[in-house]
Design a protein that fits this description.
Blueprint (H helix, E strand, L loop, with lengths): L18 H21 L3 H66 L10 E6 L2 E7 H4 L9 H14 L4 E6 L13 H19 L7 E5 L12 H7 L1 E6 L3
Parallel strand pairs: 3-4
Antiparallel strand pairs: 1-2, 2-5, 3-5
Length: 243
């Protein structure tokens, strides 16, 4: 009995490559291709690229420097504008003060058409001041205001309101002999204080805008030793500190 061995045709089975190694091979091939492509760039082309990049960096640096300079110039111009604005305000202030002073001189200056008795607006080394005769304000040797003194101060009161002022007392050079004040310096200060008290407590001026000084016989309005000069030197001056 012939044993017949039936054999099926042998099938050849192709083994499929895993997917991940394929991707790796493809990536490696891309990298190799890129390197080969880069290797194909000529030295001249490389130099051109490097030169263009350097020129671009220089332009960027120049732009940064220009922006910095523009910012500095803007700050300078802004300060200049502020300065010009301040100068314009100052110029307007000076103009207004000059106009006010001209009006005061017209009313109280030498030769005014309607002068206040015993009051004159005069120029001093420290500015303009109302000069009020001592004989109008006080009786000899006293520091209490007379009725005529109150009246004279009342007439110039509108010009003093709102201003910073310094009230200065002055005497002549006649030595004090029988007065309780002892010295002309003390008497001048007491008279200045009496005027200040009247203007603040009686007339309502702001006390924080008023200062007081007494100079005795040491700042004469007229240095001549005549009786007329001594009479002129006995006075109270109200200095306008803000023009």
């Amino acid at each position: 009995m012939n044993d017949s061995h039936t054999s099926e045709p042998q099938k050849v089975r192709g083994a499929a490559l895993p997917d991940r190694p394929v991707r790796r091979l493809r990536g490696a091939a891309w990298i190799v291709g890129s390197l080969l492509l880069a290797a194909c760039v000529s030295p001249e082309a490389h130099r051109r690229v490097v030169g263009a990049n350097s020129a671009l960096q220089a332009q960027l640096a120049q732009m940064h420097e220009s922006q910095k300079n523009l910012a500095l110039e803007n700050d300078r111009l802004r300060r200049r504008v502020d300065e010009l604005g301040k100068n314009a305000v100052d110029a307007q202030w000076v103009k207004e003060k000059k106009a006010q002073l001209a009006e005061l001189l017209k009313k109280y200056g030498s030769g005014a058409p309607n002068p206040v008795d015993g009051v004159e607006l005069v120029s001093t080394p420290e500015g303009y001041a109302f000069r009020v005769a001592g004989g109008v304000l006080f009786s000899p040797g006293r520091n209490d205001l007379s009725d005529s003194g109150r009246q004279a101060l009342g007439q110039i009161l509108p010009e003093l309101r709102g201003r910073r002022i310094r009230i200065e007392g002055h005497t002549d050079d006649t030595p004090i002999q029988r007065s309780r004040w002892g010295t002309n310096l003390r008497l001048s200060m007491e008279r200045a204080m009496a005027v200040a008290d009247h203007l603040t407590k009686g007339a309502g001026l702001d006390a924080d805008k008023i200062s007081v000084a007494g100079y005795g016989e040491y700042r004469p309005a007229d240095p001549a030793g005549t009786d007329a000069a001594r009479q002129k030197n006995r006075r109270v001056e109200i200095l306008l500190l803000d023009g």
